[in-house]
Each structure stands twice: as C-alpha cells, then as structure tokens.
Amino acid sequence: MPSTRDIRRRIKSVKNTAQITKAMQLVAAAKMKKAQDQAANGRSYAELLNKILVSLKESAEEGVHPYFSAGKGDRTLVVVIATDKGLCGALNTNLLKKVIQSKLGDEVDFVTIGRKATQALSRLRRNLLADFPIRDPARFAEVRAVGRFLQEKYLTGDYQKVLIAFNNFINTVSQVPTVEQLLPVNPVTLGGKRNFDEKAREVVASELPQYTFEPAAAAVFETVLPQYVNGTLYQMVLEARASEHSSRMVAMKNATDNAKQILKDLTLEYNKVRQAAITNELLEITTAKMALE
Question: Where in the chain is the domain with CATH 1.10.287.80?
Fold first, then answer.
C-alpha cells in the first residue's frame, strides 16, 4: 500500500497536469472559434465556384483546357494536409489511415502540409516530392505557392489526377478524414454539405446553364481555373485547421476531466490510508494501556 507521502506527490503531479491541460483547452478554444469562422465564411464561395466549373466541364469543348480532362500520365499526386503539432486526439492517425486505405495504387507521389504528415510518410518510406510549412492562421499567399506547384506538376503530363487528403470539418466534435479530387475539376464536398451531386454528370447539355464567354472560353478558363485550384486548396486548408483546433480542444477537455477524476480517486485513497494509519495508532495506544493495567 502506498504511503500518504507518495499519494500527496501524485495528487500534486496530477493537479499540475490538469492546470496545463486546462490552459491548453482555453487556448485551443480561442483558436477554434477563429478557425471555424474562417472556414465557414469561405465555404459558400468555394462550393459555388466548384459547382459552376463542374457544369462548364460537361458543356465545354474537348481540349478547351487541360484542367477539364484527366492527365496523360499514370501516376497520382496526393497532397496530405495534417497538423504541425500533436495533442489533437486521433486526427492525424485517422487521416493517414484513410490515405492508406484509399487504394491509390503503387504509382503515387506525395506533397505534405504539416510536420506530422511529413514524419509519418517518411517512416512509411513513401515518395515525398515537397513539404510546405504553412503558419497558423493560414494565409492565402502561402497556400497559393502550393497551388502553383501542383499545377506545374499536373501540366507536365506525368500525373493522371491530383488528390487532396484533409480533415473535413463538420462540427466541433466531428471531423471526417476525406480524400477529394482537385484536378481534373471534380465535384468537391466541403463541410459535409454538397450543393450538387454526381447526377450533374448525367445531365444533357441542353439542361445546363448557358454561358457566354468574353473574349473567349479558353481565355476565361486560363484565368479562372488557376484561381479555382488555389481557392479550393485554401478552403481545404481552412477546413483542416478548424478540424485541428476543434479536435485539440476536445482532447484537452477530456484530459482535464480525466485528471479531475483521478484527483477524486487519489483523494479518496489518501483519506483511506490516513484513516487506516489513525486507526492503527489508536489500536496501539489502547493495547499499550490494557497491557499496563
């Protein structure tokens, strides 16, 4: 049975841990609110732009832009958006498990955003093309550099498609690991909501909105599609950051609650040990008094 001194030391240690996890919970909660607002504010624009381009893909002339057709290569380029820090539950583990279970084939190259993704893929000995560190909060200028890199790689013709693996933010307690196709243009789900579905591919051209391009469709696409790639990728980074801070807040709250429960158990154990010691001392005194009589 541990002594009262040992239990007091454990109680002090758990109290210190609870203070740390509580502070981290408050910091994550503050960052979470900002990240959630930022993700929610940009979601409508990204979904609408994606919806329009998916419709245009069906009615556009073949070869009008390479982003509308699959690449000629046989390789797949996958961007994994993870976190730089830990203590966010199973967020990164679930994402990497999703990537591994997606059956991407053997001809796969990876680009990472976040130190945890880089470390995990390096341990798995996967082919890493580049690692882009992006600060928190994410800035569009930093993400645009990643988008430019992906477009350059896709236009070389070595890759058939470009996929993005990220944690899709649903709400504070729900983040879904998701793999979405960025190139060629494809329906993308953000925040678990879809304003259009796969049936859009089956709609005949006469049922699609009719667009007039000025000066020409090719010129418009040459300007809009790179912006679409950068904007959609930026929105996915925002979704991942909102998922990160939400998951970390929940994990730290659970850790704080567990520490409080451990404190209760240790306090009860301490009282039992102390009461047992007092009882033993009383028995010794009573026994000694009876012996003297």
Answer: 4-22+250-292
Sequence-ordered list of residues with C-beta below 8 angstroms from that of 26, at least 6 positions apart, any chain: none
Name the CATH topology of 41-245: Pyruvate Kinase; Chain: A, domain 1 (3.40.1380)
* Token pair of 243 as six digits: 């998922």
Residue 256: how many CB atoms within 10 A of its CB?
Answer: 20
Architecture of the domain made up of 4-22+250-292: Orthogonal Bundle (1.10)
Annotate 119-175 with DSSP letters as a single string.
HHHHHTT--EEEE----SS--HHHHHHHHHHHHHHHHTT-EEEEEEEEEEEEETTEE
Spatial separation of the C-alpha atoms in residues 178 and 161, rounded to whole Å = 16
CA 202 – CA 50 distance, rounded (Å): 17
| Single-letter amino acid, residue 279 | T
Please write the tens of the pLDDT for every residue from 103-156: 887 789 999 999 999 999 999 889 999 999 998 888 999 999 999 999 999 988
How far apart, in whole angstroms, are the C-alpha atoms of residue 143 and residue 184? 19
Digit-coded pLDDT (tens) for 81-94:
999 988 998 999 99
Q: What is the CA radius of gyration of the chain?
A: 28
Ranges in the chain annotated CATH 3.40.1380.10: 41-245
Coil, helix or strand at residue 101: helix
- pTM over cut 0.90: no
Alpha-helical runs (H) found in the chain: 4-59, 91-101, 115-123, 140-155, 217-292
Q: Are strands 108-113 and 128-131 parallel, antiparallel or unpaired?
A: parallel
Strand partners, 166: 178
Question: Hey, what are 113's tokens?
Answer: 């955003």
